[in-house]
Specification:
Largest sheet: 10 strands, mixed
Number of helices: 13
Bound molecules: magnesium ion
Shape: globular
CATH class of the domain at 113-363: Alpha Beta
Structural class: alpha/beta
CATH topology of the domain at 113-363: TIM Barrel
Strand content: 15-25%
Radius of gyration: 21 Å
Distance between the termini: 51 Å
Length: 399
């Protein structure tokens, strides 16, 4: 039977606050058969919407939605230049919607389409932060009380704008030296005050000169982290070989990667332990499942990026991979607001420190478009972009 894509619609919503979520609806010639995909790139959201509406939509209308791989490859090659986050997110929105449609056609959850469950739930990590070591400890204890076993811990550095902790200072100044001094002391404190089985994580967020990040990893070895994240910017991945010679702390990397030339060498040479891409930023579910399989052959585990600037549809795509991929490592979680759950019925549930999917076809999710319209993108001067972060002398600093 002929089945064609008849329309591609973009839903823009912000039920969690400032994050500008983008989800894509692909409609078909079969009335009632449609799919949802995540295309969220909140810092350049309007550009993604344009890419979808002006380029992807006219390109795929009339195509057979069952031919996921063909459409994915065609969209990549259609622009000649490719592999950037704007176009990758646009492709992801359509790609993931096609997987949702495929699951509905097969009457199976997507995790069944790719081999079936190898585990029941996706073990999560949650975020603890605070102005002081005591506050971070309390934040972590509260999460342990909620059933989480893995906690990422970030602490404010007095006088500086610190990633992962709001701190008391509203300015946008950053210096790496005080941060490097504080972090080992934070983990010394946490190890003294948290149960020994607590798995601790930390995110450097590419804010430290590479050789200092290697020194920090070495200092943290004694605290046996579950992983240390984004020690380097993607431009500095050449330092990972040196890191391996000096530290045995497990390394997570990749939320800023957008193309395979960046991540394949690190896997092949076994220089990282957790692959942490943001799935919509590498092109969506099709790209991520291939990457997961590649990582499996080299002993690298998955840890897909999962903060609040992934839509709940994107989180569910993460979870379906988590459930079906043998080399799953850990999943970063977002605790969805009530408003978000109203817009996205069927979002992953959190219980006992795990994300749980449901067993409905496709992603098992819906988007309530009327509820979504109640949460328009907020009016922000930078349209979702981040204000500059600077050193004390005025130099621009990586965020
Ligand atoms: Mg991160």
């Amino acid at each position: 039977m002929a089945l064609t894509i008849t329309d591609v619609k973009v839903v823009k919503t912000a039920p969690q606050g400032r994050q500008q979520l983008i989800v894509v609806k692909v409609e078909t010639s079969d009335p009632g058969l449609y799919g949802w995909g995540c295309a969220t790139f909140t810092q350049r959201a309007a550009a993604v919407v344009t890419a979808i509406e002006e380029f992807c939509r006219p390109y795929v209308i009339g195509m057979d939605p069952r031919r996921i791989e063909d459409i994915y490859q065609a969209l990549i090659t259609s622009s000649y230049w490719h592999s950037g986050p704007v176009l990758n997110n646009a492709i992801s929105g359509i790609d993931e919607a096609l997987w949702d449609i495929k699951g509905k056609l097969a009457n199976m959850p997507v995790y069944d389409l790719i081999g079936g469950k190898v585990r029941e739930g996706a073990d999560l990590y949650a975020h603890a932060s605070g102005d002081t070591f005591e506050a971070v400890t309390e934040s972590a204890q509260a999460l342990l009380g909620q059933g989480f076993r893995h906690i990422r811990c970030q602490c404010a550095v007095p006088g500086l704008s610190t990633y992962g902790s709001r701190g008391r200072d509203g300015d946008r100044i950053w210096e790496h030296a005080p941060y490097i001094r504080i972090v080992p002391r934070l983990f010394e404190h946490l190890r003294k005050h948290l149960p020994e089985e607590t798995e601790l994580l930390h995110d450097i967020h590419q804010r430290v000169p590479p050789i200092n990040a290697i020194g920090l990893a070495k200092d943290l070895d004694q605290f046996k982290l579950f992983f240390l994240e984004d020690a380097f910017a993607p431009e500095d991945i050449g330092y990972f070989a040196l890191m391996r010679q000096h530290s045995v702390t497990p390394i997570a990397m990749g939320e800023l990667f957008v193309n395979q030339a960046e991540y394949l060498p690190l896997v092949k040479d076994r220089q990282i332990d957790f692959m942490r891409v943001h799935i919509s930023d590498i092109g969506g579910f099709s790209a991520a499942r291939k990457l997961a399989a590649y990582c499996e052959f080299f002993g690298v585990r998955t840890a897909w990026h999962g903060p609040g600037d992934v839509s709940p549809i994107g989180h569910m795509a993460n979870v379906h991979l988590d459930l079906a991929v043998y080399n799953f490592g850990i999943q970063e979680c977002t605790i969805f607001s009530d408003a978000s759950r109203e817009v996205f019925p069927g979002s992953p549930e959190i219980r006992d420190g795990y994300y749980w999917a449901n067993d409905k076809p496709g992603w098992g999710m819906e988007v309530d478009e009327k509820a979504a319209a109640k949460h328009p993108w907020p009016d922000q001067p930078l349209r979702g972009g981040w204000a500059a972060l600077r050193r004390r002398d005025g130099t621009i600093q990586r965020q």
